[in-house]
Amino acid sequence: DGGITQSPKYLFRKEGQNVTLSCEQNLNHDAMYWYRQDPGQGLRLIYYSQIVNDFQKGDIAEGYSVSREKKESFPLTVTSAQKNPTAFYLCASTRGRNYEQYFGPGTRLTVT
Amino acid sequence: AQTVTQSQPEMSVQEAETVTLSCTYDTSENNYYLFWYKQPPSRQMILVIRQEAYKQQNATENRFSVNFQKAAKSFSLKISDSQLGDTAMYFCAFIFLPSTGNQFYFGTGTSLTVIP
Predict the structure, then answer these.
(1) Does residue A5 belong to the interface with chain B, where contact is any CB pair within 8 Å?
(2) Ranges of residues in chain B whose predicted pLDDT is under 70
(3) What is the percentage of chain A residues whose pLDDT exceeds 90?
(4) Cα distance from A31 to chain B (closest Cα, Å)?
(5) N or C, which terminus of chain A has less Cβ within 10 Å?
(6) Please, are residues A58 and A36 in contact by the beta-carbon 8 Å criterion?
């Protein structure tokens, strides 16, 4: 079955540690996205990538980093510079020119 | 700047009734796509319906339909014959082309509860 996988579903880290969230897709989509979701704020774009080895900052990129070495993979690193990292993180990819976004199941990150 | 507004944080509807969720936006672009996404308690985002701005005909998908008013910059979602499984957060979203590349803009969501 084609789809987007995110792992793990729940992640716990101590403050000051970097942590990497995984996102893999086997849909052969070119564009991939990372969003952060907080209560009452909808989805906010962190980074997106339209093609391998290229990515752009979204509205809240500070404290985050990404890489896009393979078409299928778009990992997100939450660095210690991110002041409020506890949130629900969603990865998505886009199908062709109808721009329909497909989402992964999300990762709930808790930093204490 | 592109903005998306969902002015109804919470709504409820009786099972089998019809409900309309509103969404407005502001853009100077002429070419864009509009979407409604559903996020049930599982938090999996699911595409409900899609509308191209250049199409005058409103999109429909089974019990879901939109009322797209381009001049008014309004994009509402109508759910007919509401079912308990429709209980979820609903987000409207846009992609404006070509100025924003492939960036999507989401509203803050409307929490819909279907009452049995």
Answers:
(1) no
(2) 98-101
(3) 81
(4) 8
(5) N
(6) no
Q: How far, in Å, are A1, A19, A99, B52, B68 from residue B65 at the CA level?
A: 29, 41, 19, 13, 10
Distances (CA, A) of A104 to A20, A32, B19, B35: 16, 11, 28, 17
Q: Which residue has the higher pLDDT, A17 or B97?
A: A17
Residues 6+ apart with CB under 8 A from B84: B15, B114, B116
A41–B102 C-beta distance less than 8 A: no
**Distance between alpha carbon A69 and the CA centroid of its chain, in Å?**
15
Burial class (CB in 10 A: 0-12, 13-18, 19+), A112: exposed
d(CA B56, CA B69): 9
> Which of A41, A46, A55, A103 to mutate to probe the B interface, most B CBs <10 Å?
A103
- In chain B, residues with a C-beta closer than 8 Å to the C-beta of A68 are none
- The nearest CA of chain B is from the CA of A45 a distance in Å of 8
Which residues are B100's β-sheet partners? none
Q: In the predicted model, is pLDDT for residue A87 greater than 90? A: yes
**Nearest CA among B38, B110, B25, B37 for reference residue B74:** B25
**What is the nearest CA distance from A17 to chain B, expressed in angstroms?**
26
For range A60-79, the mean pLDDT: 96
Both tokens assigned to B58:
């409103």
**Interchain CB distance below 8 Å, B44 and A42:** no
What is the per-residue pLDDT across B31-42, written as a single tens digit (0 to 9) for each? 889 999 999 999
